[in-house]
Amino acid sequence: MKKFFALLLTLAMVFTLAACGGAPGSNSSGPAADSGKPADSADYPTAEKPVTLKLGHVGPPNSSLQIAAEAIAADVLDKTGGAVVIEVYPQSQLGDAVVMLDGLSNGTLEMAMVGCNEIATMLPDFYVFCLPFLFSGLDEFITVAREAEVTAKANEIMNTKGITLIGFPTGECRGYSNTQHAVHSPADIIGQKVRIQAGAIYVDTFEALGAVPSTMAFSEVYSALQQGVIHAEDNGADMLTKMKFAEVEKYHTMLNHMIQSNPLMISTEVWNKLSPDQQSAIREAEAAWGDNYLTFMEDQLASSVQSAKEAGVEIVELSDSEFQAFKDATSSVYDVYVPQIDASVYELVCGRIDAYRS
Questions:
Q1: What is the DSSP letter of 110?
Q2: Are residues 61 and 187 in the same domain?
Q3: Where in the chain does DSSP place strands (E)?
Q4: Residue 197 near residue 258 (C-beta atoms within 8 A)
Q5: Is residue 50 included in any domain, yes or no?
Q6: What CA–CA distance (Å, rounded) separates 102 from 121?
Q7: Are residues 74 and 35 in the same domain?
């Protein structure tokens, strides 16, 4: 464990420097068994003949996604004695979310961390992790998503597309940043042009709030804000400084309308070519990271908020009644997406949320 925390601290320091330049609910038992025929033991990777697995994600090189992926990769390398090498490719170098999901499904991409909202376009049951204002905070989401039965059910759903779920190692509360004024209620958002992530549920959520949603490449957001093409964007507080949005956005509301989670996945075809011990090593590495993620993210968020304040950004934290007003305003979104989720899946997740709150 000391070795793990030393690795975590080193990685966090490295990526913090990169940015300046530019827990409960353990899942360690792993999801249910995956379908497919395992490889012959003679074909398993070894230190002499290692396998290289490419892992793609859409986050920037200094994001929490990259830190998590690098930490898991280093732990897997150590646990497998060099037999399994995971190479991490940030910022959509291996394709956008849709391309990566297709690659996982057909076996042309080994691993990826893709958002639940994008996964839901392929597997609608994943909308249960994207419903607006369903989760009260990151701690609640991480606890519920990493609960053994929830993770096993999510893995079972993914298996239908030839994908194996390793776990939910990351999550981040999305907020609302804008160039015009502080946001405390849905009325403050009406008419604002907001850049959102791709996904119909994001469009429907912000239209329900009275905003004018727009999708564009993440690399175009800064200039669009600067030129007034858009007035706002939904993102985590860390992007204010990491992507220098604080230079053009001076208002950020900790809206927590959705939790941005990027599950760690591997192609089932690739998974079945690993030995049981190597599979266990990957699950254990994810669990070691995920079980300590909340502490890591709390520190990251506190640092990001402080940096944003120092850059002149007004940070708004909603009261319980203000949060409820936003949730009430998006009730129509539930009418559209809950029917797309298998009733047993929806009841399982909502039941775990109720248990967490009791």
A1: -
A2: no
A3: 51-57, 84-89, 111-113, 163-167, 172-173, 175-178, 193-195, 212-214, 232-235, 251-254, 259-260, 264-267, 314-317
A4: no
A5: yes
A6: 12
A7: yes
Q: Are residue 191 and residue 269 in the same domain, yes or no?
A: no
The total number of structural domains that make up the chain? 2
36 and 72 part of one domain: yes
Do the beta carbons of residue 103 and residue 266 sit within 8 Å?
A: no
Q: If you count them, how many residues does the chain have?
A: 358
Residue 220 is classified by DSSP as G
Do 232 and 323 lie in one domain? The reply is yes
The two structure tokens encoding residue 201: 């549920």
Same domain, 226 and 214: yes
Nearest 5°: the CA angle 323, 328, 333 is 115
- Rounded Cα distance between 268 and 282, Å, is 13
Question: Could you give phi then psi for residue 207, rounded to 5 degrees?
Answer: -65, -40
- The answer for residues whose C-beta is within 8 angstroms of residue 164's C-beta and 6 or more apart is 31, 34, 155, 158, 265, 266, 267, 268, 271
Q: What is the CATH number of the domain that holds 313?
A: 3.40.190.170
pTM of the model: 0.86
Is residue 223 in a domain? yes
- Is 312 found in the same domain as 280? no
Q: Which two tokens stand for residue 29?
A: 């038992």
> Positive or negative CA dihedral for 102, 103, 107, 108?
positive
Is residue 261 within 8 A of residue 145, CB to CB? The reply is yes
Find the domain containing 46 and state its range: 2-124+145-171+262-302
Q: Are residues 338 and 208 in the same domain?
A: yes
- Going residue by residue through the chain, which has 358 residues, state the pLDDT in tens, using 9 for 90 and above: 444 444 444 444 444 334 333 333 334 334 444 545 666 777 999 999 999 999 999 988 988 899 999 999 999 999 999 999 999 999 999 999 999 999 999 999 999 999 999 999 999 999 999 999 999 999 999 999 999 999 999 999 999 999 999 999 999 999 999 999 999 999 999 999 999 987 899 999 999 999 999 998 888 999 999 999 999 999 989 889 888 999 999 999 999 999 999 999 999 999 999 999 999 999 999 999 999 999 999 998 899 999 999 999 999 999 999 999 999 999 999 999 999 999 999 999 999 999 999 9
Q: What type of residue is 119?
A: I
